[in-house]
Amino acid sequence: MLGHLSFGVNDLDRAASFYDAILAPLGYVRVWTSAHAVGFGAPGGGDKLALFAKPGEVIAPGPGFHLAFTAPNRAAVDAFHAAALTAGGADDGGPGLRPRYGPSYYAAFVRDPDGYKLEAVHQSL
To answer: How many whole angstroms separate alpha carbon 24 and alpha carbon 20?
Structure first.
């Protein structure tokens, strides 16, 4: 349904480093870089997430908004969460099962340095 998602960040270098760290355990990489933006996606593919430098203009969306990344397994969810905390993110719900979303819904939630709520999720079939 979605081609890609983009949003502004206050400090592009800080944000790019943060997303490099948290997306690596999920199998995603930086696919392009410019002076004012970076893009992330699957290796060898196009961007699915783009971050644009907007210093002093960024206001993270309020309750109800979050961006969820698909994780290949539970260990990747755990690594995403740990990487986020190490890279300057804030915990918003540690790794674990979320049975209210489904019997095998395993996820972790963090806030990036600009306040965006992010999730990594793995579901067994």
So the answer is: 6
Pair type for strands 5-9 and 49-53: parallel
Residue type, 103: P
Q: How far apart are CA 19 and CA 83, in angstroms?
A: 9
State pLDDT tens for residues 50-95: 999 999 999 999 999 999 999 999 999 999 999 999 999 999 999 9
Please give the angle made by the CA atoms of 17, 22 and 23, to the nearest 5 degrees.
100
How far apart are the C-alpha atoms of 111 and 9, rounded to whole Å?
A: 13
Q: What single string gives the DSSP state of each residue in 5-48? A: EEEEES-HHHHHHHHHHHHGGGT-EEEEE-SSEEEEESTTS--S
Displacement of CA 100 from its chain's centroid (Å): 22
